[in-house]
TrEMBL record:
Transmembrane helix found in the keyword field: yes
Biological process terms in GO annotation: siderophore-iron import into cell
Membrane topology: Multi-pass membrane protein
GO molecular function: transmembrane transporter activity
Subcellular location: Cell membrane
UniProt keywords, alphabetically: Cell membrane, Membrane, Transmembrane, Transmembrane helix, Transport
Membrane spanning stretches: 60-80, 92-113, 119-138, 150-170, 198-222, 234-265, 277-298, 310-327
Lineage: Bacteria, Bacillati, Actinomycetota, Actinomycetes, Micrococcales
Organism in which the protein naturally occurs: Cryobacterium zhongshanensis
Name this polypeptide is given: Iron chelate uptake ABC transporter family permease subunit
Pfam families the UniProt entry points to: FecCD
Amino acid sequence: MVSARRPVVGLLAAAVLLVLVIGASLVVGARDVPFGTVLDALFRPDPAVTDQLVVLDLRIPRTIVGLFAGLALGLAGALMQGVTRNPLADPGLLGVNAGASLFVVAGIAVFGVTSALGYVWFAFIGAAAAASVVYVIGSLGRGGATPVKLTLAGTALTAALTSLITIVLLSDPATFDRYRFWSAGSLSARGLDTALQLAPFILVGAILAATAGRMLNALALGDDLARGLGQNVVAARIVCFVAVVLLCGSATALAGPIVFVGLAVPHLARWFAGPDYRWTLALSALLGPALLLLADVIGRVIARPGEIEAGLVVAFLGAPVLILLVRNTKAVGL
């Protein structure tokens, strides 16, 4: 049983953590920048100061990308675990990552796309297309789009698309060389213009997610009981599905297929929030970007003067947290 104060304490702690990580993201890196210089860059910019240029041209865009991608992945993971009633669901479950990856590979191999901004739209369209196919397949037959059918359809499509991606990459080394940098999951080399282009999709997805809390609370009771309480189960799943497509597609297009944030963050959020998805979604929206930015900062520090991509670091950060959480069955119960 979660006390009434615990979600509030968790929300405040998550907000403080996010602020601290944002500060670290602006200060820490291969070239550490004093906090005073960061403040000067924000409020009294001087293009003649090299450290300020590092903050304005590199650190701020990178931090904004991490905020957007982490927010989207955290919310998407909570939505997917709620709508499928599967505690192991993450943005890859509906074939989102596989669809985005396949379209990026096609963009590189067929159209010669080489820039991060060029990858964005291929990844977004691929993610949306794959998730749509999964939903259509999962809706066939009696009972409509049940959690089990969605999970099975997503797993099957992911396996098929992954095979196609492997075939293309093995037969085209040049495409593999370009694709591997995007597929590692990174916040670097993603400009502010890319983030701003995807911001409207993330905003709409976040708004839909904010309206889905009550729906997910009803769905958690089972379809029959949810209908008995007056919840339109089909409409609830469609709202969640559209939100997941917008959020996952945008995050994957922006930062690459980062898979662990959407899995671990909702479990940590539920440890504070309990079974109420309104609190879970709010906490996930803060913990997602905090975890992703923290992983990015650590990746810059441990391999100086180079860096390790955030998508690789986040798995090492999230795995022990998830193991500790799943030992408490109440924390992950859906």
